[in-house]
Amino acid sequence: MTSQWLWYTTRGAGVISLVLLSAVVCLGLLTRLRVRGEGWPSFLTAAVHQDLALVALFFLGLHIVTAVVDPFTSLGIVAATVPFGSSYRTVWLGLGTLSFELGLAVGLTSLARRVIGARLWRAVHWLAYACWPLAVVHAVGTGTDGHSAWLLGITIVCCGAVLTCLAWRLVAAPLDPLAQVRSARLMAGSDR
Amino acid sequence: MSFPSLLDGPDLHGGAEPATSHLARLGLNLLSGSELIDALDQSDLRGRGGAGFPVGRKWRSLAGRQGPRVVIANGAEGEPLSFKDRLLMQARPHLVLDGAVLAAGAVEADQIVLYIGREHSAAADAMLHALAERPARERGLIRISRAPVAYVSGEETAAVQFVNRGVALPMSVPPRPFEAGVRGRPTMVQNVESLAAAALIARRGGAWYRSSGTLLVTVTGAVARPGVIEIRLGTPVAEVVERAGGRPGSIQALLLGGYFGGWVAADDAWDLPLHPERLRATGHSLGCGVVAPLPVDRCGVAETARIVSYLAGQSAGQCGPCVFGLGAIAETLRRIAIGLSRPDDLARLDRWSAELPGRGACRHPDGGAGLVRSALGVFADDFAHHLARRGCTAARPLTAGVA
Amino acid sequence: MSEPSARRWDGPRGVARVGTSRLSLGVDRIRCDGRGYCAELLPEMIRLDDWGYPIVSSERVPDHLLDHARRAVAACPLLAIRVAEDGRSR
Predict the structure, then answer these.
(1) For residue range A115-136, what is the model confidence (pLDDT) as tens digits?
(2) How far is A183 from chain B (nearest CA, A)?
(3) Which residues fall within 8 angstroms of residue B138, CB to CB, at 6 or more apart?
(4) pTM, 2 dp
């Protein structure tokens, strides 16, 4: 592969990762909202969320590997694995590395969920709320396309979708129908 | 070897029986360890907390486990109609302590927790006082834990969770307490009356209990002298009601086993034997030994509505089927009782109560469902009356503001 | 299933009917919050009550449904359902 193709792949895979990651976050939020329609059972939202996350991780991997392998960029393994370890655009790239590692943590714990238990899994999953914004900032700040109209356009659409789902999630009722009852009875059954 | 045995001795209203009197009257324990477990098996003693599990089998299931064990003497009498556990602790604390110490010895436990309701001060004081009279070796093993008084506080996993982290709510099983309970150790949760009976069996043997054993029942309701009565195993309901000053003619039905039990029509109840296994064979449950006659001038529907409303409110709030199922049943019964029934109410009560059992972490919803189903049978005519909007025939019907 | 069932010797534990595993479903009723994925993925053995909480068959899982059962168990975000030998279905 010529350096140019590697470079195109890096940028393309990066954009695809961002779009997919945004879709994954949206679906994750929709899972919490118990969205369900005719012909769309609720387990499907969660299942597609998981499957898309794996696809996103694949494209993310492609993005990182092509960037490191590309002889034109001076990025090495360190840049890809140590946040803020690169000398080229240290901060912007570092945020991307951080985002990748958070995403990896979320993904790996999800695969091992039965082993680590629901509580630990959920705790790590909260990192997803950090993973996504870091990816967005990285995309806009690092890429040479950073200020091009099409990338900004895509970024705005992704942000819009995620923020809409997030707003919906914040105003909706808690997922656990027993949330209020549980806390009331817990108070009653406890040592004062 | 006279009857009564659990409540034998000095006047019950004269305070706790002191150690000296207790020892003089009953002497020392004779059986202990595996011999005692054998005697318990032979006696067929059943747990007196409500579930009726064979005591010998429970002790044996702990004896074979690894590591140090814990005994919880369960005196947290959550059933509002029951008073026997409190009476036993107030009047015969040493008998209960004997049982707890014997249990600890038999299953090699190094810790005994006396689990008593926070508001049951008389019982707790008597037990504390008696504890001070015990030998130092025993005092070192025993501590008292006071839980908030609630219906589910006495459930075995609720007792374990309270001792572990101060929350008296049931937990999911597995693991059951005998597998892993207090601090992860095998734990026996045994009702105080069962422990007291075990203490007597240690002195008199298993065969004695089979032939002359007794149990405590609480009689409350349409009787002149409500209270705790000690009876021989198998005593018919009629005799118990008579001893408490009840008149059969003024009673329409009885609640057997407490809120966790079920209604029985009076005519069907009189000959029922108050014996855990024999009663179960007739389809009823002795539970914690409550016998509560309902007078003819009260409405069975209204009474059931009131009780189920209480039970729904006492749910631990952890499991959807219990919270929503019992809640919906309670609301429907309330509407029926005050004359605002809907045509499909009975069908829904039937369906919801059939769907409840076994779908909570504990048996609370099962108890409520059982009570409702027994009411639908015993008070079928009253339900029909209420549903036809012909009002309540009882002299004191439920009003909208009550329950 | 009216044809006579073939029996197979299953070792020291005893004879099992062909077509039924020794596994059953069990629900942790405190963890469960009625999301209903399990009922969607195994409707043959799980249905939902009026409030969305599962009513689970206490029967053993037939062989032909084992994969579906495992999928239903894996799908629960709260790990509230399991399939085990002593599933203690509730």
Answers:
(1) 998 889 999 999 888 999 999 9
(2) 8
(3) B97, B101
(4) 0.89
Structural domain harbouring B360: 300-387
Scanning the structure block, which residue is given the tokens 């005591």?
B55
| Three-class secondary structure of residue A16 per DSSP | helix
> CA dist B61 to A13, B158, B188, Å?
61, 20, 9
Contacts of C28 in chain B (CB under 8 A): 172, 361
What is the average pLDDT across C17-42? 89
Give Dmax (Cα) for chain C.
43
User: Which CATH number belongs to the domain containing residue B331 in this structure?
Assistant: 1.20.1440.230
CA distance B379 to B1: 43
Q: Average the pLDDT over A16-36 and give the result.
A: 89
Architecture of the C21-84 domain: 2-Layer Sandwich (3.30)
The ipTM value here is 0.88
Q: Each residue of A165-174: pLDDT tens digit?
A: 999 988 887 7
Helix (DSSP H) and strand (DSSP E) numbers for chain B: 19, 11
Q: Which of B311, B217, B213 is nearest to B257 (CA)?
A: B217
Nearest to A155, CA basis, from A51, A15, A47: A15
- Mutation test of the interface with chain B: which of A175, A182, A183, A191, choosing the one with the most B Cβ atoms within 10 A? A191
Q: Are residues B120 and B161 in the same domain?
A: yes
Chain B contact for A123, CB < 8 A?
no
| Pairwise CB contact (< 8 Å): C34 & B171 | no
Rounded to whole angstroms, the Cα distance separating B200 from B99 reads 8
Which residue from A98, A164, A110 is spatially nearest to A136, judged by alpha carbons? A98
Q: Which residues in chain C are contacts of B318 at CB distance < 8 A?
A: 29-30
User: A180 to chain B: nearest residue by CA?
Assistant: B317
The answer on pLDDT for B367 being more than 90 is yes
Q: Lowest mean pLDDT: which of A32-41, A62-71, B58-67, B268-277?
A: A32-41
pLDDT digits (tens, 9 = 90+) for B286-300: 999 999 999 999 999
Tokens of A30: 């929709």
